[in-house]
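[User]
Protein folding is very new to me. Any chance you could explain this protein sequence and its structure tokens? I have pasted everything here:
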Amino acid sequence: MQEERRASPRVAVSLEAAYRLSPGNPMPRPGWLKDISLGGSLIYQTEPLRPGSKISVTIGLPSEGQVVLPGTVAWCRESRMGHGGYEAGIRWGELNPIFQARLSTFLAHRVQPKGPEISSVARSAATARIRSYAPASLTEPFGRPTPSPLWRLIILGLIGLGIFLLVTLIWQDLHGYRPTHLF
């Protein structure tokens, strides 16, 4: 059995991604993440990437929101999936603390044991290690996960709509407006 050399446990995922080769390439290109960890990821893409090139990967995590992860292409080869694309190993660079906290929270909820040889103690140790990178103040205030930015926008929109309707009703009442029919 081959010994795991990675510093962080990998988690199998299936996430759409957009990546930019830096510096100076503003056009995002589509990709697909197969696995991810705090140290790097495996990405499928349609073109070969040069090992050593700088890359910025943007992904939308289901409940944590969007994260932008800068890194370096460690290796690239033709995909073993048989679809004619390429797969590349990405090693993350210096991560923004908020994005690192979001990624840590995402990974902590998805750590899966790889086979029967991993005990519950090893799984909880891996989970604790991943969570240690995510400050509780950024990820779980009051013991609950923070809502994603999309949910925040929806909630703020509903609150704004409620305030607008309330102000409209008060204005109509103050000015004596009485509708004669509803429809």
